[in-house]
Design a protein that fits this description.
single chain; 5 helices
């Protein structure tokens, strides 16, 4: 659950890779969150990941499902299509991913 490779991609102007890897880190962190709290992990279906996140969040009366959904949607719009990713978008995504990872670490460690 670290972002070193994502920062490296950003610094080397590989913005789409930075965005993609930032969201990968969010997915992995979410898996850790759901495994820790409800001992379940989602399949490759992102809707299931969000649903499990909400379920796990009930254990602590808090969740970040809307943040995950927005990041996954941005990845879908950019990474899976021939659409450029700007430096600004890559930076914003990296910041959002970093905040999510910090939040998960705070909840499970």
């Amino acid at each position: 659950m670290e972002l070193r490779a994502k920062v490296d991609n950003l610094e080397k102007e590989r913005y789409k890779a930075s965005l993609d890897h930032s969201v990968d880190a969010v997915i992995a962190s979410n898996d850790a969150f759901t495994i820790f709290l409800i001992e379940e992990v989602a399949s490759t279906d992102h809707r299931e990941a969000i649903s499990l996140h909400k379920e796990a969040g009930k254990k602590i009366s808090e969740n970040k499902a809307s943040e995950i959904a927005l990041l996954l949607e941005e990845r879908h719009r950019r990474s899976y299509r021939c659409v450029p990713v700007t430096k600004n978008l890559a930076e914003i995504t990296l910041k959002k991913a970093s905040r999510f990872l910090d939040w998960v670490k705070n909840k499970i460690l």
